[in-house]
Amino acid sequence: SQQGEEDPQALSIQEGENATMNCSYKTSINNLQWYRQNSGRGLVHLILIRSNEREKHSGRLRVTLDTSKKSSSLLITASRAADTASYFCATDAWNTDKLIFGTGTRLQVFP
Amino acid sequence: GAVVSQHPSRVICKSGTSVKIECRSLDFQATTMFWYRQFPKQSLMLMATSNEGSKATYEQGVEKDKFLINHASLTLSTLTVTSAHPEDSSFYICSAIPRRERGVRDTQYFGPGTRLTVL
Which residues on B lie below 8 Å from A100 (Cβ)? Predict the structure, then answer.
């Protein structure tokens, strides 16, 4: 399977703490994206990082990409209870629009 | 922003019946749409790529005769689950890529999903 791996599978933290999720993938990529999914709902696009970028910020989100290690991390700073959701990374291989999703991290933020 | 809708949002059917799920791009034209399936507490698995005006491309292990895909226009793709069985119960999500200029890459926009329950 080409599916990426994410760790941890589940993460529980208190409000105000930072949450870090990691994603590893298997093939060369064009972009890597992070999505959020509330239980039983659709996907919300969070951030896209291109293969020639190493770090990107968006509000409380910070994404890093290391193409030599085929890995990425998503950091959510100063977490809130509303951040409780599943987070998925997704990669699209060079010259294809297909997205391959990681296994996901279920984040629980306690108030 | 680019909005993708799905209909119905939830469907319950009896085993052996066929169910059609629609995916529409509301404010843009999409030459390519994708269909994913997600089982509880699992990730999204790509089922097929739907291209307007041509046959869908199915991922390995996905039965094309069971999951019929029709992309009849630039704003609509349909997934029909034929002779549904309880093991087909899942969350089905579509996504669409806006029609774009040659060489320009764009992100996928996801629909809200359809929960199928087969009794």
Answer: 46
Specify burial of residue B67 (Cβ count, 10 A radius: 0-12, 13-18, 19+).
buried
What residues of chain A have any CB closer than 8 angstroms to a CB in chain B? Answer: 3, 30-31, 33, 35, 40-43, 45, 48, 88, 97-104, 106
Chain B partners of A106 at a C-beta cutoff of 8 Å? 41
Q: Which amino acid is at A84?
A: T
pLDDT tens, position by position, A34-46: 999 998 888 999 9
Distance from CA of B18 to the nearest CA of A (A): 23
Q: What DSSP designation does A79 have? A: -
Tell me: the pLDDT tens digits for B60-116? 999 999 999 998 888 999 999 999 999 999 999 999 988 775 556 667 889 999 999
Q: Decide: helix, strand or coil at residue B88.
A: helix
- Distance from the Cα of B88 to chain A's closest Cα (Å) equals 17
* Vertex A67 angle, CA A65 and A73, to 5°: 25
What lies within 8 Å, CB to CB, of B23 at 6+ separation is B4, B5, B6, B33, B35, B76, B77, B78, B79, B94, B96, B111
